[in-house]
Recover the amino acids of this structure.
C-alpha cells in the first residue's frame, strides 16, 4: 500500500546496466519452429541479470536467509495479495510469513473469491479485521479501534489482521470489490511512524509498507516480541536489498541483524 499512482513500483528499481536479457522486438524466434514470435515482456527485466538466492529471492550478494527467525504471536495476519504484487521481489508481505508461519496468503481475483478464505472468515475461532483507513463516510459504522482487538482476545478468539497487499490503488480496489469483506470490522492503523522502506518510492513517508503495517499492528495489540522480530527482519531485508542494488557487499551485520542472530540461539 505505498504509492498512489501505482507507477513507481512497476519497475524493480535495480540500477540500469545498459544491457538486458530481454530479446529485442522482431528478433525472437520459437526454438521449435523457427517462426518469429511476439517479444516476451519480462515483468522484472531490469532486475533479471541479478543472481538471486532461491531461499529468500534477494540478490545473493547480501542474502537474507541467515537472519530468518520465527516468532509467535497471539494475533494472526492474513494477506490478500494483488496478483501483480506476488511477482515483485520488493514485496514485503512475504516477510510476514517468514516470521509468523501461521500467516495466510491469498491471491485476490475480483470475480473469483478464494474458497479457503471464505471458509476461514466463517470460522468462529477467528475474529478478522480489515486493515484500512477510516477516511470515507460510507463505512464509518464498521470502524473500530485497537481496544476491540483486546476484547476479542479476552473472549478467547484469535484476532486476525487482514492486510490488502498491493499498491494503494490496488488495495482500495480490493477493499471496494470484495463483497465478503463488507461485513467485517474496519481497523485503521493509527501511527505517527514514518516508513523506512527504501526499495519503492512512497507517495508519502506516512505510507508504511505491508511488513511495517503488520509490525505496528502486532506492537499495538500486545505482541511486542513478534513485532520486534518482524521489524528487525524487515530492516535486514530493506538494508540488504538496498545495498545489493548499489552492488555493495555488507561487511558487518547491522544492529537489527545482530538481534535476529541472537534470537536464533534462544
Ligand atoms: Zn537467501
Amino acid at each position: 500500500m505505498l504509492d498512489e499512482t501505482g507507477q513507481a513500483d512497476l519497475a524493480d528499481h535495480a540500477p540500469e546496466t545498459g544491457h538486458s536479457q530481454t530479446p529485442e522486438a522482431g528478433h525472437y524466434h520459437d526454438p521449435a519452429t523457427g517462426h518469429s514470435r511476439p517479444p516476451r515482456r519480462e515483468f522484472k527485466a531490469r532486475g533479471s541479470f541479478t543472481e538471486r538466492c532461491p531461499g529468500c529471492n534477494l540478490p545473493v550478494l547480501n542474502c537474507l536467509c541467515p537472519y530468518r527467525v520465527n516468532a509467535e504471536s497471539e494475533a494472526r495476519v492474513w494477506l490478500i495479495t494483488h496478483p501483480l504484487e506476488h511477482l515483485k521481489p520488493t514485496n514485503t508481505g512475504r516477510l510476514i510469513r517468514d516470521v509468523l508461519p501461521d500467516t495466510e496468503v491469498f491471491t485476490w481475483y475480483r470475480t473469483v473469491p478464494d474458497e479457503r478464505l471464505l471458509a476461514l472468515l466463517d470460522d468462529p475461532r477467528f475474529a478478522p479485521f480489515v486493515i484500512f483507513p477510516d477516511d470515507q463516510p460510507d463505512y464509518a459504522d464498521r470502524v473500530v479501534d485497537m481496544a476491540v482487538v483486546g476484547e476479542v482476545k479476552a473472549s478467547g478468539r484469535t484476532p486476525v489482521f487482514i492486510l490488502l497487499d498491493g499498491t494503494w490503488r490496488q488495495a482500495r480496489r480490493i477493499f471496494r470489490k470484495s463483497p465478503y469483506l463488507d461485513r467485517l470490522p474496519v481497523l485503521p492503523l493509527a501511527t505517527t511512524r514514518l516508513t523506512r522502506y527504501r526499495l519503492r518510492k512512497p507517495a508519502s513517508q506516512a505510507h508504511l509498507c505491508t511488513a511495517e503495517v503488520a509490525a505496528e499492528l502486532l506492537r499495538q495489540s500486545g505482541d511486542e516480541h513478534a513485532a520486534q522480530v518482524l521489524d528487525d527482519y524487515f530492516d535486514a531485508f530493506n538494508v540488504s536489498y538496498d545495498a545489493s542494488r548499489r552492488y555493495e557487499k555488507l561487511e558487518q551485520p547491522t544492529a537489527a541483524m545482530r538481534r535476529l542472530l541472537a534470537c536464533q540461539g534462544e
About this structure: The mean pLDDT is 84. Residues 72-264 form a domain with the Alpha/beta knot fold (CATH 3.40.1280). The beta strands are 76-81, 104-107, 126-131, 158-165, 186-187. The longest helix spans residues 224-245.
